[in-house]
Amino acid sequence: MRRRNRSSDTCDLKEDQGIFKTGVVDVRLELAPLHKRSKRGDLIVAGLIDGVDIEVVFPGRRERATGPLMAEMAHRAARTAVLTHALLPISARGIWRTRLIDPTDFRRARIYQFLAAEWQLEDSGQTYGEPPKV
């Protein structure tokens, strides 16, 4: 008799198939202590990669694993008033996507987003998040 998958496994698989459609890449980036939530509840953090402003998105169930990351960013932000001194370097695995927005002046702007599946604080050997189930 064939065993059925737990419903959470099936949901996780569908979530990852929708998010991580292309192959994942490894990047090193820096996070700023500026964040917001999407309408879906994803955590979106301002970041930099090679001096370019990006948004780092911690989608779906991975948002729950961001506690240590948020605590470290808050700790760094409390120690300095200079934003560049509060940047948190991380290594991450995920995918890139672009988002086009139409501001009120009707000029299109492109925002680069990195959707993180797994990440590691530079000072820590612990990996957070989980590999995509695709």
State the secondary-structure class.
alpha+beta
Helix count equals: 2
Count of individual domains: 1
What name is given to the CATH topology? OB fold (Dihydrolipoamide Acetyltransferase, E2P)
Helix content: 10-25%
Query: Rough shape?
Result: globular
Provide the succession of SSEs. HEEEHEEE
Low-confidence stretches: none
The main sheet comes to: 5 strands, mixed, barrel
CATH architecture: Beta Barrel
- Strand segment tally: 6
First-last Cα distance? 25 Å
In short:
By secondary structure, this protein is α+β, with helices and mostly antiparallel strands.
Keywords, separated by commas or semicolons:
five-stranded mixed barrel, OB fold (Dihydrolipoamide Acetyltransferase, E2P), 2 helices, globular, alpha+beta, 134 residues, 6 strands
Written overview of the protein:
By secondary structure, the protein is α+β, with helices and mostly antiparallel strands. The chain has one domain (26-129): OB fold (Dihydrolipoamide Acetyltransferase, E2P) (Beta Barrel), CATH 2.40.50.140. Helices cover 19% and strands 43% of the residues. The chain has a five-stranded mixed beta barrel with strand order 1-2-3-5-4. Strand 4 (88-101) and strand 5 (109-121) form a beta hairpin. The radius of gyration is 16 Å and the shape is globular.
